[in-house]
Write a structure and sequence with these properties.
alpha+beta, binds coenzyme A
C-alpha cells in the first residue's frame, strides 16, 4: 500500500467519491455536501492506494503556520481496522515542516474519537453540533495533538 498526495484529477475524484461513500452517503446527505465543509486555507489531500484502488483518504488544511485541521478522514469499509487510518495520519505528520511545533486538531465523530485517542489526540472538551449529524446520534468533539518532532 502506498500513501501519497492526490495529484491527478482521477485521484482527486476517487478521494471525493470515497469520502462520500464512507462519511455522508450512509447519512442520506446530498452528494455535494463536501462543498459546505470546505475551508479557504491551503489544503493537503492524501490517499492510500492498494492495487490501484484508493482505499483511504485524508483532507487537512493549514489554518496557520503552526496549526493544521484534519478536515476529513475515511477508509473504505473493507479496509477499516487494517492500519490505513493510522498510516494516513502518520504520513501527514511526516510531511509537515517541523521547524516549529505544530498542533493538529480535528472534530472527531463520537464513532471515531477512539481512533484519534489511540493516535494520541486529546479531547479539548469542545463539541460541534450539526443537526444533520445529531439526528443520527453523531456529535463531533474537538481533539488535538501537539507535534514536536517526528516519532
Ligand atoms: C475512523 C477511521 C478513519 C479509522 O481508520 P482505520 O484504518 O479503520 O483505523 P486503524 O486500523 O488505523 O486503527 C488504529 C487504531 O485505532 C483503533 N480504532 C480504529 N477505528 C476505531 C474506532 N472507530 N473507535 C475506536 N478505536 C478505533 C484501532 O483498533 C487501532 O487500534 P490498535 O492500534 O490498538 O490496534 C476509519 O475506520 C473510518 O473511515 N471510519 C468511518 C468514517 C469515520 O468515522 N471517519 C472519521 C470522521 S471524524
Amino acid at each position: 500500500m502506498n500513501i501519497k498526495h492526490a495529484v491527478t484529477e482521477k485521484e482527486k475524484n476517487e478521494l471525493d467519491q470515497l469520502l462520500w461513500n464512507v462519511l455522508w452517503k450512509p447519512l442520506g446527505l446530498p452528494r455535494d455536501i463536501r462543498q459546505s465543509f470546505k475551508l479557504n486555507y491551503p489544503q493537503i489531500e492524501l490517499i492510500a492506494v492498494d492495487s490501484g484502488n484508493v482505499v483511504g483518504c485524508l483532507v487537512a488544511n493549514w489554518l496557520s503556520d503552526d496549526e493544521i485541521e484534519i478536515r476529513h478522514i475515511a477508509v473504505s469499509f473493507d479496509y477499516q481496522g487494517r492500519s490505513v487510518g493510522r498510516r494516513l495520519v502518520g504520513k501527514l505528520i511526516e510531511l509537515v515542516e517541523l521547524n516549529v511545533p505544530i498542533t493538529i486538531h480535528t472534530y472527531a465523530r463520537n464513532t471515531s474519537a477512539g481512533f484519534f485517542s489511540k493516535l494520541g489526540f486529546i479531547p479539548t472538551g469542545e463539541y460541534l453540533e450539526h443537526p444533520d449529524f445529531a439526528k443520527h446520534g453523531i456529535a463531533n468533539q474537538k481533539m488535538y495533538c501537539e507535534i514536536r518532532e517526528i516519532t
